[in-house]
Amino acid sequence: MNASTLKDRVASASVAADRATPASEADAPPYFQARDLHAYYGESYIVQGVGFAMREGEILALLGRNGAGKTSTLRTIARLADPQLTQGEVWLAGQPLHRMKAYQAARLGVGLVPEDRRIIQGLTVQQNLQLAQIAKPVGWSIEQIYELFPRLGERKTQEGTTLSGGEQQMLAIGRALARDVKLLLLDEPYEGLAPVIVQEIERTLEKVRALGMTTIIVEQNAIAALTLADRAVILDMGEVVFDGSAREVLDNADLRHEYLAV
Ligand SMILES: Nc1ncnc2c1ncn2[C@@H]1O[C@H](COP(=O)(O)OP(=O)(O)OP(=O)(O)O)[C@@H](O)[C@H]1O
Ligand SMILES: [Mg+2]
């Protein structure tokens, strides 16, 4: 997919969001839906009936304390082997991800940016991006990614693993966008980064948002995630304890104290 088709998709998505939803559309299946997910690491029952739905172009902050099951939920959605999904459904743009393996979900447009970023050793920045484009369908061109992240363009011949933490995060996000992503899953994109770098990544994610990318962001920095997001889902002990607007969580200190410790 090229940028113009992405932009067309964004334009039609925002037009759709602006007008009142007629009854027939209200019944239409959501763009993304996780339904009653149950998943295990071996015998450990971790994801305990998680479910939520998203409209196309929405940004959802998936929050909760350490160990609440956020990473496990993202991994389940991306169909990684661990934790193992034993019950429930995952739908993206009408496709049943729950029947697929990770590589098939990736091909259909699930782009997981894991916490450890997984920059490939021995490859330059540019080669890391090119490698992402080996599997079709391709998303953004490498030039477009350098436009979004000028720092990556300046360092395109540098080995990826020698980038700073913030630059590695940019490369990890860029690599996801290099593929035809329909659902971007970001696991703690601000982790371990200095405040000034967090701001830089935030500005980039604002641009990604403007392009209408449907995104789930997991963050310990709940305020930053809620500022970016439209919606919030809070997990506690592997279950959804809140599903509402990001604004509601920002305005509700009690809720934040109870489940987020902020
Ligand atoms: N590979 C694994 N095997 C067994 N248990 C695991 C495994 N990975 C995670 N867990 C457990 O699953 C629970 C949820 O972990 P998860 O990583 O999903 O939490 P999280 O919400 O992402 O936490 P954090 O904010 O610390 O990243 C924790 O109790 C954790 O110990
Ligand atoms: Mg985690």
TrEMBL record:
Domain ABC transporter: 32-262
Matches recorded under InterPro entries: AAA+_ATPase, ABC_transporter-like_ATP-bd, ABC_transporter-like_CS, BCAA_Transport_ATP-bd_LivF, P-loop_NTPase
Swiss-Prot/TrEMBL keywords: Amino-acid transport, ATP-binding, Nucleotide-binding, Transport
Biological processes per GO annotation: L-amino acid transport
GO MF, one example: ATP hydrolysis activity
SUPFAM superfamilies: P-loop containing nucleoside triphosphate hydrolases
Pfam families referenced in this protein's UniProt entry, alphabetically: ABC_tran (PF00005)
Protein family per UniProt: Belongs to the ABC transporter superfamily.
Protein name from the UniProt record: Branched-chain amino acid transport system ATP-binding protein
Phylogenetic classification of the source organism: Bacteria, Pseudomonadati, Pseudomonadota, Alphaproteobacteria, Rhodospirillales
